Amino acid sequence: MNKAEQEFLKDLDKKLWSAADKLRNNLDAAVYKHVVLGLIFLKYVSDAFEERRQELREQFRDPDQDYYIPQDDMSDDEYKEFIEEELEVRDYYVAKNVFWVPPLARWEVLKENNKLAAGSEIELPEGETYEFKNVARLIDDANRAIEKENSNLKDILDKTYSQKQIPQEKLGELIDLFSDANFTAKEYNGEKLEMNSKDILGHVYEYFLGEFALAEGKKGGQYYTPKSIVKLMVQMLQPFKGRVYDPAMGSGGFFVQSEEFIEEYGGKIGQISVYGQESNPTTWRLAAMNMAIRGIDFDFGKQPADSFTNDQHPDLRADYVMANPPFNVSDWWNEKLADDPRWEYGTPPQGNANFAWLQHMLYHLSPNGSLALLLANGSMSSNTSGEGEIRKNLLENDLVECMVALPGQLFTNTQIPACIWFLTKNKTNGTKTPDGEGKGDRSGKVLFIDAREKGYMKDRVLRDFKEEEIKEIAQTYHDWQQDEEYEDIPGYCKSATLEEVQKNDYVLTPGRYVGAPETEDDGIPFPEKMEKLTARLKIQFEESETLETKIKENLAGLGYEL
After folding, report:
1. Domain range for residue 418?
2. Considering the entire predicted model, what is its pTM?
């Protein structure tokens, strides 16, 4: 995006969020999230439909277009009426992968009728009418109508607005808010914008997901991974072609970033197939709407389900697997998992799912596939309940490619330090990168990156990565993979052999390998430097002793003794 587009989106984000948040009152963020995001989706499908509708209206009247409709003997009114009837033919929309939006669900109906009195009638095309009861019921019925006409949205849209304790006037104000927002802007501050409504609404949807995650705190982090971490993992893994899978997908952030990555390299989103799984029903729906807004075809299974006990993609072998599952889950085990074929490198401990996630992902990886997994730091060194043996088996089978230690305070839901595991099933395959370069032979090697000093504090509690830091870390990994211009940097990165890892008892903490950063020689001889430091320490000890004496005297004056 150019600068004008970035500023436009930033301004739109803040304006919409500020206005929407004021309407929340005392409603819980977890409930309000679905109210707002559901309306954004309804706005999107209606806008996309109207955009196609306008396109058709112009093509019907253009003799140079395939869809041209000659006026012939029709009067102007008859011609206009015929075109309006033709605009209601469903096939014109489906042919362009545009959701068919029935009259009741079109945004104009919500916009024009959200303040009607109960019992009023809404006139629809072809003489149909709808009895208005309240705004919530109208939204529910609109979503039902969309699902009925679009089978790939079945059971995805929220049809429970009537059950939520939201004042009807607040719902009306939200509809007015999104009606007034300029999702089809073509310029900003005199600068031309190249974005369409789909791009803008998709961005707003993702922004609202992030803001709701912050508002919900710990609970919100269960469905939302900070964008910079997702971007780092995607930039390193480079999922540009084939099957992409996330078994703990939350709201689908990895798929969104994969789309942006592909577009950045001049490819098309159709080059990848998206597969995901999520156990939380409402989050599963959020992810499906997130994909639909962007026009990404997806397979999220028949239903929300647990990835361990009800695998929705048992036969899938993906080219890329990415996930940020909840850390250190203790209640994941089920007795029917005891002899599961996924535990090829050792049965995971029943009290911690970290290595269950890792092996589940490996099981679903194609012979030349690669994966990226966010885990708690303990996964790199723990030896409890067989975890150390699993880690050893992974290394002995040459599956571990890269380990990245992350800085603290990156997550809204936990302060547990985290790391990223990168694994691949074939370090010798010479697979291509998006720019056509071949990867080198990395057999028997593991790259360690210590990124704990990267990032900046975006506010008092959360850290974030800068764009250039993401590129730097990703480039380090790619240089090492391609055996180009890579070199170890003390305190930051180290290419270690399997023998070196064995000497460290298969512990994968990057700090053990990268060492300390080099310090500049200040030119002062060590004896002279030591003498100055010793003299300074002596003074500090004397000051401490004086302060201690004064404190004791003050306490004695108050009748207390140490």
Report:
1. 222-482
2. 0.83
